[in-house]
Design goal:
With about 450 residues, this protein is α+β, with helices and mostly antiparallel strands. Helices cover about 35% and strands about 25% of the residues. The protein has three domains: about 5-90, Phosphorylase Kinase, domain 1 (2-Layer Sandwich); about 100-270, Transferase(Phosphotransferase) domain 1 (Transferase(Phosphotransferase), domain 1, Orthogonal Bundle); about 315-430, Kinase associated domain 1, KA1 (TATA-Binding Protein, 2-Layer Sandwich), CATH 3.30.310.80. The two termini are about 35 Å apart. Residues about 160-170, about 170-175 and about 330-335 have low confidence and may be disordered. The protein binds ligand 3AM. It catalyses: L-threonyl-[protein] + ATP = O-phospho-L-threonyl-[protein] + ADP + H(+); L-seryl-[protein] + ATP = O-phospho-L-seryl-[protein] + ADP + H(+).
């Protein structure tokens, strides 16, 4: 069980756990071993990127993104390639996703929504001015930093999953339809700037209403509603917010409001303070050139180093007191994706108990040694919830169990964990402190 840990290294980065799996990339947590700086590592299949008809455009957009250092855009630090993979090194953003706030606390007051919308428009305007379009603005791409400021992720990267035709306009067959502009769905070719703006309008609506403007379980009906911009503002919206939303959610891209007009809009302008930042950011693009030239010379090596598990028993126990939900919902990390608990039961009993608890909740259970993968057969808000667990031995009769979200929605993970904690009550080791707290 407490086998040596294998540490993965890519160039100067120590690679940690998977943060999420998107449509075209896996995102892993990593640490720059020279500076200690945490980063998010996007890992892509080299073949898919370089053989993509759009690889020239992807290269141009990645190069542009590397030159952008905007306070509301996730920073792209560098690009690396190994023999088979491309790694995009991004600033690590710690505050979770903006929409987790809506899921947890419901719709926002207009002043709060306005602040995020101003930051979003500011980021979008800046990237557009540099010729980079997002094309896939949706809740998952709106992250929050430690101070609660918005950071837009994946600017310039979504081209990876899109197709382009000879007319120079973008065409797509996939995407999150709820946020996608009508002209994109109609596949008539479209302009990236006005299409991005539509998605910003949908995002603003959700912030203020707490639900989607266009929604239907039937995709054809959904398409129809979007094409006709068939939506109703909730009664609590102010008149000026309604006016702005209606101007953005105009199904005709030719008459839709444009960013310079938004900047002059009455609702938008209130307390607007565009961020001040240094635009003349000096960086070099040799890494981007090397990756897209596919030159052997600059390949980074992927190394695996065996390491004995380094934590000692005291550290483990202090990391995993009881099955207290405080573990999961502690103040700083409201949107935590992992937690641990300790148990005095034999490892096999722990595994069996988790399996027994997970199956009735609709999970498929796969076991391998002391690791388990639980997959919800039903798709949730962000695809099928996937949970990874592992049992570590701390001492002969003491185990530490790690439970983490591998894929899916964080809130659904929290709900699962709450259920699990009820079923595992007799497995969890409760210290005297925990017993006191319960009283
Ligand atoms: O799987 P979920 O939705 O919880 O928030 C992003 C998403 O999480 C996260 O990785 C998952 C797949 O996209 N993510 C993406 N870029 C990130 C970054 N720069 C990030 N998390 C932190 N920093």
């Amino acid at each position: 069980m407490s086998q040596p840990k294998v540490k993965r290294r890519i160039g100067k980065y120590e690679v940690g756990r998977t943060i999420g799996e998107g449509t075209f990339a896996k995102v892993k947590f990593a640490k720059n071993s020279e500076t200690g700086e945490p980063v998010a590592l996007k890992i892509l299949d080299k073949d898919k990127v370089l053989k993509n008809k759009m690889s020239e455009q992807i290269k141009r957009e990645i190069a542009t993104m590397k030159l952008i250092k905007h306070p509301h855009v996730v920073r792209l630090n560098e690009v690396m390639a190994s023999k088979t993979k491309i790694f995009i090194v991004l600033e690590f953003v710690t505050g979770g996703e903006l929409f987790d706030k809506i899921v947890n606390h419901g719709r926002m007051q207009e002043d709060a929504a306005r602040k995020y919308f101003q930051q979003l428009i500011n980021a979008v305007d800046y990237c557009h001015s540099r010729g980079v379009y997002h094309r896939d603005l949706k809740p998952e791409n709106l992250l929050l930093d430690a101070s609660g400021n918005l950071k837009v992720s994946d600017f310039g990267l979504s081209a990876l999953s899109w197709q382009i035709r000879d007319d120079g306009l973008l065409h797509t067959t996939c995407g999150t339809p709820n946020y996608v502009a009508p002209e994109v769905l109609n596949d008539l070719g479209y302009d990236g700037a006005t299409a991005d703006l539509w998605s910003c309008g949908v995002i603003l609506f959700v912030l203020l209403a707490g639900y989607l403007p266009f929604d239907d379980p039937n995709v054809m009906n959904l398409y129809k509603k979007i094409s006709l911009a068939e939506f109703t503002c909730p009664p609590w919206l102010s008149l000026s917010a309604r006016i702005l939303i209606t101007r953005i959610l105009d199904p005709n891209p030719m008459t839709r409001i444009i960013i310079p007009e938004i900047l002059e809009d009455e609702w938008f302008k209130k307390d607007y303070k565009p961020p001040v930042f240094d635009e003349n950011y000096d960086t070099n693009l040799d890494d981007v050139e090397a990756v897209f030239k596919d030159s052997e010379e600059h390949l980074v090596t992927e190394k695996r180093e065996e390491q004995p598990a380094a934590l000692n028993a005291f550290e483990l126990i202090s990391m995993s007191r009881g099955l207290n939900l405080g573990n999961l919902f502690d103040g700083e990390q409201e949107f935590k994706r992992e937690t641990r608990f300790s148990s005095r039961c034999p490892a096999n009993d722990i595994i069996n108990k988790i399996e027994e608890a997970a199956k009735p909740l609709g999970f498929d259970v796969r076991k391998k040694n002391y690791k388990m993968r639980l997959e919800n057969v039903k798709a949730g808000r962000k695809g099928n919830l996937n949970i990874a667990t592992e049992v570590f031995q701390v001492a002969p009769s003491l185990h530490m169990v790690e439970v983490r979200k591998a894929k899916g929605d964080t809130l659904e993970f929290h709900k699962f964990y709450k259920n699990l904690s009820t079923s595992l009550d007799d497995v969890v080791w409760k210290t005297e402190d925990d017993m006191q707290e319960k009283k």
